[in-house]
Design a protein that fits this description.
This protein has 188 residues and is mostly helical. 79% of the residues lie in helices and 0% in strands. It folds into two domains: 48 residues, no CATH class; 114 residues. The longest helix has 57 residues.
Amino acid sequence: MRGDWKYGLLFLLLFSGAFAVQAVAGKLAGRELGKAKAGIRFSSVSNLPTFAFYPEQAGDIALVSKKNAPQQNAHTEKILRKTMQIRKAAEDKVGAFLKQRYCIGNNMISSYSPAEASAYEAQFKPKLEELEKLTAVLHSLVQEGPQTNNPKNLTAYQQKLTTLIKEITAGYTEICEVEETLCGCYSG
């Protein structure tokens, strides 16, 4: 019996808000409210009244949704603008990554003897292939754009773009730290 107060408190926290809203809206009769409080007070689930959702209550919910719509739309627009900025930056990065890859390949051929170039190619080929695949994924994400204008989906899309950009940048930085002469773009 000592633990009953914990359940009573839990029921109070979970259901008191719903009962108060219904009571204020005039949807819950005083007698039923009393039963609900009694059920919460005695921590007995069997004493709690059951409430059905009536279609006329949907109007109250719709009014709240309409009231919050301008704030939700403004929030979604803000996230959408940020997404488009990140998307534009990612599109620019794709071009920079492709140029970086071209320069590394060109520097391998022009700066080293065939034996040295094949040694560097063997050393860096797996990493360069991985970076090419990641760049292709980034390019396809940029081309497709976000699938929906839902704030959660937009945030996930932003996260994918920034994560890929960071991974690719780190990969090219790793190659350039090992062999600096590969990374300069001398052809313009």
